[in-house]
Amino acid sequence: MIGNQVAGGYTSRTAELLPAGFKVSDDILKAMSSVKVADPSGSVHPGIKEQLSHSPDYEFDIVVIGSGPAGYYAAIRAAQLGARTAVVEKGPVGGTCLNVGCIPTKTLLASVAVLAHIRCGSQFGVDVGECRVNIPAMMKR
């Protein structure tokens, strides 16, 4: 441990940054701490490298707003290139797309597509009795 950093560039404050009630398994924390930070010497544009070297008074070099698909990718890439990176998220980690938007919607649409196929089964020579929708099971999926 160096200052407030642990191996892999993750700070000891990682757990403090998670939403209330969000639990991270010990295996995940162990895996996070074993991630090797890439040597950014040849990967960072010289102008950006110079700007980063002038920011020792700041805790972070880059702050990413939002932890959706673009935000988490940007934060990971910045950290891989050696920048001290923070992510700011107003809601659950993963943003709207992961938690209530794109991914959950596509999951529910897939369930409804299965229901539609079952109801049209007789057109394909498959007779199925009455089928019921189990909303809690769909939501859990």
Textual characterization of the structure:
The chain is elongated and about 70 Å long. The chain contains 6 helices and 2 strands; from the N terminus they run H-H-E-H-E-H-H-H. It has 2 domains: 7-95, no CATH class; 101-140. It has a two-stranded parallel sheet. With 141 residues, the chain is mainly alpha-helical.
> Major sheet, described briefly?
2 strands, parallel
Q: Could you tell me the strand content as a percent range?
A: 5-15%
Shape: elongated
Mean pLDDT: 75
Roughly how much helix do the residues carry, as a percent range?
A: 40-55%
Low-confidence stretches: 1-13
Which features would summarize this protein structure in a list?
141 residues, two-stranded parallel ribbon, 6 helices
